[in-house]
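Journal club prep, shared notes

We agreed each person brings one worked example of a sequence with its structure written out as tokens. Mine is FAD-dependent pyridine nucleotide-disulphide oxidoreductase. I'm keeping it raw so we can talk through how to read the token line rather than staring at a rendered picture. Sequence first:
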Amino acid sequence: MKNLVIIGGGFAGFWSAMSAVRQARFLRKDSSLKITMISLDEYLSIRPRFYENKFKDMRVPLKKYLDPLGVVLDVAKVIRIDHKKKNIFTLGSNSQEEVLSFDGLILAAGSQLSRPSIPGFEHAFNVDTFGDAVLLANHLKELSDFRFPSAASRTFVVVGASFTGLEVITGLPERLRSFDLPDIQFNFILTDRSFSIAPEYSSEAREIISWQLEKEGIQFFAGEEVDSISPDHILFKSGKCIETRTIIWCGGLKANPLTSMFPIDRDCQGRLKVDQFLRIDGQKTIFAAGDVAQACVDDEGHTSVMSCQHAIPQGKFAGNNAVNALFDCNLIPYSQPRYVTCLDLGSEQALLTSGWGRFPKMTGISAKKLKTEIMSKWIIPEKDVEETVKISVPVILHNEG
Ligand SMILES: Cc1cc2nc3c(=O)[nH]c(=O)nc-3n(C[C@H](O)[C@H](O)[C@H](O)COP(=O)(O)OP(=O)(O)OC[C@H]3O[C@@H](n4cnc5c(N)ncnc54)[C@H](O)[C@@H]3O)c2cc1C
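Then the structure, token by token:
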């Protein structure tokens, strides 16, 4: 019996498990393979929806899929990996350290919010985990219960003017409108140490984003580095101070620290460089997928981005290849030349871009409908378990031209 362990029950880990089950069946090795998933909780968290206020369907129960497929779910925290001896050390709910040995491993432990050592950082909200999203929602509800009594409680500051920060700030006006307090005027401020909004986007796309910010009355404070945060204000190094009860930190993600267990190069986000089969460099049966992996996606030198768009297909390739590696079959090279982004811009507005230059392809209501469909259908597993296994085949997504 071979042991395949998957660390992480996010998009990459979930699809690794589905694909490993499918490929083991295909090779008629399902009775010779035990698959174990270790994850911090029992859910596939739909992280891209954590800026919304609809908590229903933001988490998919993993056991619904894993139990009928015979995949063991171990709810525990991996604290160490000994890749030479092929052992994983975990801490379970009883705080007892346990050791699990493996023949094959897929590291899919995702990413976490980058937390700079800024005085008072703990007073900032964020949308990194389900718990963080609930904290923010409860805070907004509490302010609304008191009818946003002070200027500071009516002022909302989002730090970070890239993808997540933009989705958070442009979603806030509609979120606050849902409290049905039409007489109250709110202030929305987006800040960044960079001088540009969404510098990773094309200038055409940035124009659309800026237009939407203006339409929603959102101010942009550029080139502002945060000095300190307190429960009722944010201070910038320039000396500027904003009185606010709500600071939402969207300053970027970094790869899970478990990546440091491997003595190889990591990129500036802490991701492990993987080969064309998603193997961690130098390892025959150890793979990485999703936000922990930096993978080449095409022949032009582009590498994967921390996104579901890359985590889901990488999971499918990693699961397939891990099983093939364990049973001495050929591995399939991963590539994913197609690259799109769909940025939510709040009320009836979104922006679809195509290609690595992130040029606008669609805006307005049709883009918003597409965004809603992506969030509520495309990235959510099929309801039927066997159907989910069926669509876990690795497929290369090409550009549409
Ligand atoms: C607010 C927000 C908005 C986003 N919007 C988009 C978007 O619009 N489009 C898009 O494509 N992407 C978006 N993303 C990014 C996307 O959510 C991630 O790229 C994606 O979740 C990565 O999947 P993953 O499986 O690699 O990691 P994750 O989803 O982070 O899953 C990691 C898993 O590992 C487990 N884990 C972590 N540490 C341990 C440990 N020590 N031991 C055991 N288990 C562990 C966790 O419990 C979790 O199950 C967004 C992210 C955020 C936070």
